[in-house]
Every structure is written in C-alpha cells, then in structure tokens.
C-alpha cells in the first residue's frame, strides 16, 4: 500500500478532529453540509456576481422577514396556525460563547505556531512558511476577498470528502509522482554537475597542490 498523504497515520475523519465539524466536512451529515455549501454559493453569487451591497441585501432580507412574520401572525388567528417564534439557538448566549471561544482558540494556536516557526528552530519549516505566505499573498491579489473566501469554503467542503472516497488511488498517484520527481531531480543534478566545466585557474591550482604534495613527500623520505 502506498504511504498516506502528508505522512499521516490516522484516517481522514480522525485527522480532521473526529467531531461534528469533521462529520460536516466529510458529508456524514449531508443536509447540513449541503446547506452550508448552498448558502456560501448563494452569498457569493449575490455579492460578487449580482453585485449586491451587504447593507442593501440585509435591509431586503429584514423587510421580507418582517412582512412574512406580520402576515403569519395575523393569519394564525383565522387559520389556526402556530405563532412563529425565533429559534433559541440563534440568540443563545451559550452558542455565542462557544463560537467566540472556538475562534479564539484557533487564533491563539495559529499565532503561537507562527511564533514557534519564527524563532528559527527549524530553518526548513521557516523557509517553507515564508514562501507559502508569499504565494498566498500573490494568489490573494488575483481574487477579491469574497471570492477567495468562497474558494476556501468550496475546497473545504469538497476536497476532503473526495479524498476520503478515492484515498487509495490518490495516495498511489501522489507516491508515484513524488518518486518520479525525485528520480528526475537526481538525474538532472548528476548530469549538471558532470557537465560543469572546470576553469584554468582551478586546474592550475589543483596541479600546483598535487606537485607540492609530491615534492613534500620526496623531501620527507630523503631526510
């Protein structure tokens, strides 16, 4: 079996935390996952494609909601309908605290991670992080912030699920590609090093060093 991607030993669900967020990302709860992806797509289409302003759209949504509640509340007395109520989860103080604490925990982890890398304990990881941040900044200049955020959500909701479904095939292709790349680099390095011409100065210096060593060897034996 080919080695797993990124050298991990745990399955994808466990690598993503193994909790409710992992279930949503891997489409173990398809209704919630589809709702998140659909809402993100609708928001991107409204703000980026249709070019609605956030305040304008928020006012329209508030007007439609108020009109719906007004009609529903007044019609409930004639049609025996239940009075609409706002779900407690939307205004729950506990839910708001959990969301804020979760964001704070992830932000703290990210800052500490950058600080540990910036201390220079692992120079390879430091260089890779700087290059990755530079590449991210270049990519960010090609898209708007909303489009970039939508692409992140789209990749998060599709790539892990597709990888989990075709895990063996992807791991095999990645391992084969990495082995081929290492082989080509090894051939290129050996071919380039063999074809580097040596200058006259280097050749003369090498001959001079060899001659001095030979004379020194003769003098030591004569003495």
TrEMBL record:
Tell me where on the tree of life, at the top rank, the source sits. Answer: Eukaryota
Which subcellular locations apply to this protein? Answer: Endoplasmic reticulum membrane
* The keyword Endoplasmic reticulum belongs to this UniProt entry's keyword annotation: yes
Topology in membrane: Multi-pass membrane protein
Q: Which InterPro entries does the record associate with it? A: Reticulon (IPR003388), Reticulon-like (IPR045064)
Which residue intervals define the domain Reticulon in the entry? 21-212
GO biological-process terms attached to the record: response to bacterium
Q: Name one GO cellular component term.
A: endoplasmic reticulum membrane
Entry keyword annotation includes NAD: no
Question: Where this protein primarily resides, as one coarse class?
Answer: endoplasmic reticulum
Query: Keyword set for this entry?
Result: Endoplasmic reticulum, Membrane, Transmembrane, Transmembrane helix
Residue stretches spanning the membrane? 53-72, 133-153
Q: What is the protein named?
A: Reticulon-like protein
- UniProt source species: Aegilops tauschii subsp. strangulata
Origin organism lineage: Eukaryota, Viridiplantae, Streptophyta, Embryophyta, Tracheophyta
